[in-house]
UniProtKB/TrEMBL annotation:
GO terms for molecular function: 3-oxoacyl-[acyl-carrier-protein] synthase activity. InterPro entries: ACP_syn_III_C, ACP_syn_III_N, Thiolase-like. This is Ketoacyl-ACP synthase III family protein. Signal peptide: none annotated. Keywords: Acyltransferase, Cytoplasm, Transferase. Residues 108-173 form the Beta-ketoacyl-[acyl-carrier-protein] synthase III N-terminal domain. Residues 245-336 form the Beta-ketoacyl-[acyl-carrier-protein] synthase III C-terminal domain. GO terms for biological process: fatty acid biosynthetic process; secondary metabolite biosynthetic process.
Amino acid sequence: MLFEDLYIAGLAACLPPRVSVRHAVAQGWYDAAEAESLEWESVAVAGDRPAPDLAVEAAREALARSGHAAEEMSVLLHASCHHQGPDLWSPQHYILRHTLGGTIPALEIRQGCNGFLAAMELAGNHLAAAPGRTAALITSADNWGDPLIDRWRATPGGLFGDAATAAVLSRRAGFARLVNVCATSLPELEELNRGGEPLFPAGCSTGVRVDLRERAATYQGEQDLVHAGRLMGQTQRDLIARTIEEAGLTPDAITRVAHQFVGDRQVLRRLLEPFGEDAVDRGVFDFGRALGHTGANDQTSGLHHLLTTGGVAPGDHVMLLGAGAGIAFSCAVVEITDVPAWAGTPDGSA
C-alpha cells in the first residue's frame, strides 16, 4: 500500500552481547564445516533477559528519539516469533504498561519473521483511517535461549540471535518516509514449517524441541523442497518488482537493502537478482553474520545499522525485505529524508 505523509520518527535496536561462532564450534554446539560455508561470525545472546524486557528497552529509546509524547500513540503493535513468557499471557500489554502506559489498544502480531513489516503496514493503515491519529509504536523481540530450541541447529541456513527493535511511525514528521509496503502469501507451503508434527497437542506443551530442519526434511507437500525454494524465491522477487513499481521507482533507485539474515551469499544473490550484479553489496550481509537471524528484527536492526554507520544519506531509498512462516512475505520502501542526530556515531548515540 502506498502511504502519504507517513514517517519513521524514532528507531532503536537492543542488541545483546555476541558469542563467537568459533567458540560455539569449540564447544561442539555448531558444525565447523557449516560455519565456514555460511560465513557466520557470532550470534547475539541475551542470556536470561526476557524478550519483552528487551522490547521495553528498545521502545523507550525509539520513543525518546521520535519527538513524540507517549500520549500521542494510538496503538502499540508487538511482533514476536518465539515464546515471550507464560502461555495465556499478553506480552504486548506488559510492554504497554512499561513504556507508554494508558489505555490504547495493544496487539501482538504473529507473522513469524515477517512480523515487523506486517506491523508497519497495519500501523500505517491504522493511522490513515482517522485524521486524529498521530503516531504508533511498533516493537519486536525474541530470546531463543530456552530449553526447547537449539539456536545453533534449529533452522536450516541460519543461527538464531536474540534482539529487540522498535519504531515510532508518525503522520507528522520523521527522519524517513515510509513510501510503500506490499505483502503476499504462499499458504500451500505452510507445511514446510509444520513438517510431520501433529496440531494437537502442541509440541511446546509436551516438551518437543523445535527443529525446523527436521520439519523441512519431512515435508510432504505436493512440491518437493527444491521446487518450493524456487517458488519462494520467485514470489519474493516478483514482490520486490511490484513494490518498486508501485512506488514509482526503478531498481537502480534502491540504494541499500535490509534483508533477513539467513542463507548464504548465493541465496542472497538470487533473492536480490532484480538489483543487478552488485546486489549483495547493497545488502547488510556482514552485519547479519555477526548478529544471527533475529526473527522479525532483521530488517529494522539492519536499517538501524545503516543509519548509525553512515550507510545511508538523505535522498537514499532503502528496501526492507521480510519472510516468515506461512509462507508470508512483505516488502517496504523507505526514503531517508534526514540522518537524525542520534545516528551521528557508530553506537547510535548523539
